[in-house]
Amino acid sequence: MTVFLKARCSAGNRRSTKSLRKSKQGSNSMSEREILEALQTATRAAVEACPPPSNALPIKYLGRTFVIPDDQKWLELVHLPNNITGEFWGSSKTYRGTLRLILHWPNNDQGVYSPIDIIEQIGSFFAKGKSLQSGQSVVKIDENPDYFGSIETGTETVFVLTVRYQSFAAE
What we know:
The protein has helices at residues 32-48, 113-124, and strands at 2-11, 14-23, 59-60, 74-81, 88-89, 92-106, 131-134, 137-141, 146-153, 156-168. It is an alpha+beta fold and 171 residues long. The strands form 2 sheets. Strands 3, 4, 5, 6, 7, 8, 9 and 10 form an 8-stranded mixed sheet that branches. Strand 5 (88-89) and strand 6 (92-106) form a beta hairpin. 24% of the residues are buried.
């Protein structure tokens, strides 16, 4: 037996309703919420695994009020789901997407070695094949993260890291 849950989605000022399928037992349920939670929790763990003082780097999460710290060093989390309609593994819906981590660093005449070391250390946490879990959702990292280099934007330089993931409910 399948139960349909209603979820409110907003895009700007528009609101739509979509149905999310969830099995009666809940063991095969997948949700974008759980996937995002697993990715956010892993990001926090990756930052905390860095040596001090980088292990306290502030993170801007989706939908949260954020004040840029005085030292202007912070990590931005961008979640880009890329779900294909009607794609299933057996009878389970597949989920996939990209987690983009953007390290913001001030142009303070200190060079880029330190922030590159930090973003690479954060990226090493998301090694290919790593599994993350939240609730009933298991998220698998598809590939080793891609570091896209540094982009100087006036008063700061950003360092972009992309993590690709896939998730599905096992039968």
